[in-house]
Design brief:
The chain has about 270 residues and is an alpha/beta fold. About 25% of the residues lie in helices and about 25% in strands. The protein folds into 2 domains: about 1-50, no CATH class; about 55-265, DHBP synthase (Alpha-Beta Complex), CATH 3.90.870. α7 (about 255-260) links the parallel β15 (about 240-245) and β16.
Length: about 270
């Protein structure tokens, strides 16, 4: 992000570390300002406060197309952006851009052997990203998508191996989220959907929670307020006609069993 033409910044020595909102022209950015002695710092002196994430309010139900285009611009440049979904906040990036994928692992501190889930907004993307989708995939999709269900299937060769954690399996989800679906439509590509938190830390249900964990690691947070759900998506592993629940979540086991009645469940 380019530096803003801030005319002067005054910081009192007695003030603790805090966020200062500085408006310049039509943009607002948030800076993390360290404790300093009381003085005025002009831009020509060459000092700038360290940049942190820009937080933009967005309506989760009816996102402004201008904000969607703005976020898409960051994603097109390979950045990682935090977005609200129908469960928790997620880190969105282009899954076929290896630089973006590596940035997600850096931002989260995530081990590289762990696969990245992919968010889609149509079954067409699922058919492109997966190989030989079984019948029970379509039955679950009909029953639970869009919604908080992630299905793990064999990946096609269109996805970088690193995205699958070298497993050649991919976790796909079609969320019930206008923000995510509009971003995918704007970009014309699916997005990564790993949770927006430091690896091993609590997941985030609000933009403020994301800022506290990742505010100095990503350029943009689309703040849609608190998400509708506090549980992660349910994960179902599919292998041919066999399946198992890999993680319990927002969709109950009874819904999965009803949709796949007749197919054999295998141990998780």
């Amino acid at each position: 992000m380019s530096r803003l033409p801030v005319h002067a910044i005054q910081v009192a020595a007695t003030q603790p570390r805090r966020r200062v909102c500085i408006a310049s022209q039509s943009r607002v950015c948030y800076f993390a300002v360290q404790r300093r002695s009381l003085r005025t710092v002009a831009p020509e002196q060459g000092w700038y406060p360290p940049l942190s994430a820009e937080m933009l309010k967005v309506s989760a139900a009816n996102p402004d197309p201008r904000l969607i285009r703005y976020a898409a611009g960051w994603l097109n440049r390979g950045a990682v952006v935090a977005v609200p979904t129908d469960t928790l906040y997620a880190l969105a990036a282009d899954p076929v851009n290896l630089a973006s994928v590596e940035e997600i692992f850096r931002v989260k501190g995530r081990p590289e052997h762990r696969a990245l889930p992919i968010l889609i907004n149509s079954l067409i993307y699922a058919q492109v990203l997966a190989k030989d989708l079984p019948d029970n995939f379509y039955r679950l999709a009909q029953a639970c998508w869009p919604g908080p269900l992630t299905m793990v299937v064999d990946a096609s060769n269109r996805l970088p191996l690193k995205v699958t954690g070298n497993t050649r399996r991919v976790a796909l989800r079609w969320p019930k989220s206008r923000v995510v679906n509009d971003l995918i439509a704007e970009l014309g590509v699916p997005l990564t959907g790993t949770s927006a938190n430091l690896s091993g830390s609590p997941t985030c249900e609000s933009g403020d929670e994301v800022f506290r964990q990742l505010g100095d690691r990503i350029p943009l947070i689309l703040d849609g307020g608190e998400t509708e759900g506090s549980l992660p998506s349910t994960i179902v592993e599919l292998r041919g006609d066999h399946w198992c629940i890999g993680r319990e979540g927002a969709i109950g086991d009874d819904v999965i069993h009803e949709a796949l009645d007749g197919d054999d469940a295998v141990p998780a």
